[in-house]
Amino acid sequence: MGRRSGILEFAVLGLLRESPMHGYELRKRLNTSLGVFRAFSYGSLYPCLKTLVANGWLIEEPGSAPEEALAATLAGRRAKIVYRLTAEGKERFEELLAHTGPDAWEDEHFGVRFAFFGQTSRDVRMRVLEGRRSRLEERLEKMRASLARTRERLDDYTLELQRHGMESVEREVRWLNELIESERAGRDQRGGPADQDRPQEQEQGRSPERDQSPPQDQSGDTDGLPRHRGGSRPDPSDDTAK
Q: What distance in Å separates the CA atoms of residue 81 and residue 27, rounded to the nearest whole number?
């Protein structure tokens, strides 16, 4: 499975864990909640849904009352289908959620993984954040070395563009440092990872909380998330940080 289809599988399972949806609603959530899927099409989504159904991770259900479904069929219209996560699908999502390999640190993957940090255990969040920071620090070092070699041959606009790219990466590194420091502080205050039983709480009917954007300022307990100290935080999927 390719990178793009792999992260789509993760996003679809994560969104359907919150509630069943039909295809149009699911595509809308992918576009609005997860920015990396802004230009996503039905042509890419439905093959993914069919594969997940074939794997036993989703089931298809009628999305309307039986008489409405029959009316749609008689009128030659396709009845709406609602996709629901199965028990096996929940297990699959938990497996993907615990993954902390290099794919989780890449630009597109990290933005989606961060959106589901509210469902992720603290130790996994730490490994993903530290991996992302390490990847960006390597990128920043290469950018600086390249700029030092080519500075004299660049015109003013190209030079300014490269500086802008470096500043974007530097800004995300600072943001990651804040997140990592706050995660560590939250863990120390609680004597260990406090989120290990979060999935169990969700299975008992509690509404899952999913961060869909970088955390905002809070006056109370931040549960490991930082209080921002000025400036705007970068979008984890910002193309300028690539």
A: 13
Which residue bears the tokens 């970068």? Answer: 234
What is the residue type of 158? T
3-state secondary structure of 89: helix
pLDDT tens for the chain, 242 residues: list them: 455 668 889 999 999 999 999 988 998 888 887 766 666 666 788 899 999 999 999 999 987 555 555 555 545 556 689 999 999 999 999 999 999 988 888 887 898 899 999 999 999 999 999 999 999 999 999 999 999 999 888 899 999 999 999 999 999 999 999 999 999 988 665 554 444 444 444 444 444 444 444 444 443 444 555 544 444 455 554 544 44
CB 222 within 8 Å of CB 186: yes
240 Cβ contact list (under 8 Å, min separation 6): 164, 165, 168
* Residues contacting 225, CB < 8 A, separation 6+: 179, 182, 186, 215, 218
Q: Quick check: 220 and 231 in contact, CB under 8 A?
A: no
CATH class (in words) of the domain with range 1-120: mainly alpha
